[in-house]
Amino acid sequence: MSDVPILEETDRTTGRDALRKNIQAAMALAGAVRSTLGPKGLDKLLVDDEGRSMVTNDGITVLESAKVEHPIAHMLIAASAAQDQTVRDGTTSTVLLAAEWLQNAWHLVVQGVHPATIARGYRMAEAYCKEHLDSLAFEANRDDILSATMTSLAGKLHQKMQSTVSACAIEAAEAIAMESDGNVVADPTRVKVITRSGPALEESKLITGLALSKKRAHVEMPSSLGAGSILLVDGGLELRSLSTDVKLNVTSTSMLQSFRDAEQQRLLDQVKMLVDLDVTLLACREGIDDSMHAHLAEAGIKAFRRVAKSDLELLARGCGARLVPSIYQAKEKDVGVFISSKCERWGDVDHWVLETDEGGATFVATGSTDTVVGEVERCFADALGVACRLKENPLLIPGGGATYIALARRLRRYAETVPGREQLAIEAYADGLETIPRVLAENAGLDSIDTLLQIVSIQTKEDDDCIGLNVVTRQPENMRTSNIVEPARVLEQAISGASEATIAVLRIDDVLWAKQEISVPDDVQASLDGTAPDRR
Ligand code: ADP
Ligand code: MG
């Protein structure tokens, strides 16, 4: 296809061929994370091009570290990353759902159904699922919240650590939750996480207040302070250096001295301004001149220098302060308040612990090596995400694939009422939802078809939507009594994100490709060609 000169150097695939190749890419990507789903999912060892390694079971971590070139794969990774940002969980599920829906769509395209019809049917199915999700959800009590955070950590860390990290996440979510316009808002970015490699994993803990690995500027400054005012400077307290090349013509020694004196006076003026503002605690993004330490200490001001901008922002939110570019610009309204400020030494690192009215919490992630600490940190982020979501919206659904199966059962009944070809797409969507329980069973070493059929039959016979697969006991069980529950928002977002990505791929019928072909694993190719045995 080189009738258009601009496309001469471009590989072009159109129509069905384009769709087939795009679906192959999506499936190859899903194949990379499939084995990590659920508590019995296996870990992946990731090694980057600089030789750094990481062991993880987290879908999005695997995807984001992989060097993926195919644009369709990027679309799926973006959906999974959005899932991570909004609800912090369900990232693997999102990719698996999208890939399965695409594969099912392909089977329909082969039978002659147009991709646009499939997209329409998928939209109808998505809307139906969202509408009926609430009828499967229930309000969480305190114990349920712990169960949900534990479920989000299933398969990661060991049992005792799961409960420690979960308890810390719930406490942290409570510390930072706020009322805003009649709604509860819990923003997980308000929780500070600091890492320490060396101490045992079990020493990970939550502390009230914000802790930073910082040492006060001078030992003479007070180590601990009671309630007081704080100023945050997005700059420094240093002698000015000349920014351009200037020649000073010094004609007498006193002239140089008066030049220095004026500079010193300027710094002293700033200390006076702090005293006038009643500030007892100062944090600067840049340095504080050595000659200032004694003056600040004398004025009873405790100061911290070289505080990262992100930490200053966290402090500003916690203390109700506003960052100022320099002390000269500071007004009374920029000053914030705190309850106490302490300096503590943990191991051989100095820390600054600040308690404020607004709450705020710090999780200290510990572990014998950096790899272990990294995994604790990621697990805490997952659990915190779940705890914050549940603080805002305490709706839970049964896990272990139960809700996916219940939705699929309802969707099939709904499909029967749709007269057009969209009916086929809705059925394909329902099949796709069942990929989650199927993969959970597969990863637990069970037969996925038998397990799925067994759960569907029990759900129907007992009219109980809570029956799912407990991969620990390897039996179909009531997920609520087995405490395998997750936030309804996670599933809702996974369904929206994956549907969005699937439909976007279905709508592409022309790919202008200036790069090489992607390689596809043999089993994926066989399944697309229809030569592989049907997994269902
Ligand atoms: P994701 O990245 O999609 O969150 P996970 O590896 O965290 O993937 O697995 C989440 C899935 O594992 C959820 O569907 C959840 O219901 C399920 N799950 C968690 N614990 C159990 C359990 N004990 N038995 C069966 N399924 C479980
Ligand atoms: Mg998860």
Q: Supply the CATH architecture of the largest domain.
A: Orthogonal Bundle
State the assembly state of the protein chains.
single chain
Secondary structure tally: strands: 21
- Report the uncertain regions: none
Largest sheet, in brief, is:
4 strands, mixed
Beta strand %: 15-25%
CATH class of the largest domain: Mainly Alpha
Bound molecules: adenosine-5'-diphosphate, magnesium ion
Number of domains: 3
- What's the arrangement of strands in the largest beta sheet? 12-11-10-13
Helix content, binned percent: 40-55%
Shape: elongated
Provide mean pLDDT, rounded.
84
Rg calculated over all Cα atoms: 29 Å
Q: Give me the CATH superfamily of the largest domain.
A: GroEL-like equatorial domain
Content-based structural category: alpha+beta
**First and last CA, distance:** 39 Å
Total count of helical runs of at least 4 residues: 17
Q: Could you characterize what this model shows?
A:
The protein is an alpha+beta fold. It has 3 domains: 10-138 and 397-514, GROEL, domain 1 (Orthogonal Bundle); 151-209 and 362-393, GROEL, domain 2 (2-Layer Sandwich), CATH 3.30.260; 211-242 and 252-351, GroEL, CATH 3.50.7.10. It contains 17 helices and 21 strands. The strands form 8 sheets. Strands 12-11-10-13 form a 4-stranded mixed sheet, sandwiched between helices. A 3-stranded antiparallel sheet has the order 4-17-20. It has a 3-stranded mixed sheet with strand order 7-16-8. Helix 5 packs across helix 12 and helix 12 packs across helix 15. The chain starts with 10 loop residues before the first strand and ends in a 7-residue tail after the last helix. The protein binds adenosine-5'-diphosphate and magnesium ion. Residues 36-39, 41, 59, 89-93, 151, 154-155, 399-400, 436, 440, 469-472, 484, 486 line the site of adenosine-5'-diphosphate.
